[in-house]
Design a protein that fits this description.
The structure is a single chain. With 259 residues, the chain is α/β, with parallel strands linked by helices. Strands 3-2-1-4-5-6-7 form a 7-stranded parallel sheet, with helices on both faces. It is built from 8 helices and 7 strands. The longest helix has 29 residues. The mean pLDDT is 95. It is globular and about 55 Å long.
Length: 259
């Protein structure tokens, strides 16, 4: 399917690997020029070079911490007038409710709520003035069904979800859509981190932790960054203009809910 976005310009944060890279590659395959961001310059440049060589699109890079004011300014200066914004950030560490203090919550909010909001506020006016735009926020299935050990993530991402619910309906009349894409467990570094925590807590091997988690997913496997990216690219496409303010699960059926 031709997604109808060839020649558009996209900013994708936390995109040197994992789900962010999956989204960047899917957009590049559709002919979208990219501005990529990550903290690690080496991995970021390697990803950019591979995407340029594979898809023949323009790829700019900004290595910085996008959760800081300086990082956001650098990314936005490099991005310029973007048609597509994909926000992504690593999730806060797992733990128990008793582990976290105010500073932990502030850090989680900065990474998983306030940074996406700041980027949207910066990019939405230009999209509105041009009469077209797409925003996809990578959040988490935990906003549909909270994950006990991910209380920091549950809280911050739920806040972002509430912001998007209202904002998306204010900008839709201008041809701009905002949606959230909610991953379950995908075969990324984040899954390794979570499986490592289970392995340590339960005193089992990493392989056993993975096997046990896969058994809880109706698809009986972890998702891939490529299939997640393809879903993101469709939400950014010319065909998705009537999808507004939605929270779309990509979790292999793991969350058992009717709606």
């Amino acid at each position: 399917m031709d997604l109808g976005i060839s020649g558009k310009r996209a900013l994708v944060t936390a995109s040197s690997k994992g789900l962010g890279r999956g989204c960047a590659e899917a957009l590049a395959a559709a002919g979208v020029n990219l501005v990529l961001n990550a903290r690690g310059a080496e991995a970021l440049e390697a990803t950019a070079a591979e995407i340029r060589a594979t898809y023949g699109v323009e790829v700019a890079t900004v290595a910085c911490d996008v959760t800081t004011a300086d990082g956001q300014a650098a990314v936005l200066a490099a991005a310029g007038d973007v048609d597509i914004l994909v926000t992504n950030a690593g999730g806060p560490p797992p733990g128990l409710w008793s582990d976290w203090d105010r500073d932990d919550f502030i850090k989680a909010l900065d990474g998983n709520m306030l940074t996406p909001i700041a980027l949207m506020k910066a990019c939405l006016p230009g999209m509105i003035s041009r009469g077209w735009g797409r925003v996809v926020n990578i959040t988490s299935g935990s906003v549909k069904a909270p994950i006990a050990q991910l209380g920091l993530s549950n809280s911050a991402r739920a806040g972002l979800t509430g912001y998007v619910a209202g904002t998306s309906r204010q900008v839709a009349e201008h041809g701009v859509t905002i949606n959230n894409l909610l991953p379950g467990i995908h075969d990324t570094d984040r899954a390794q981190q979570l499986d490592g925590g289970v392995s340590k807590t339960q005193g089992i091997s990493m392989d056993q932790a993975r096997t046990n988690r896969q058994a809880t997913i109706p698809a009986r496997r972890y998702g891939t960054a490529a299939e997640f990216g393809a879903t993101c690219a469709f939400l950014c496409s010319a065909h998705a203009g009537f999808i507004v303010g939605q929270n779309i699960l990509a979790d292999g059926g793991a969350i058992n809910a009717t709606l």
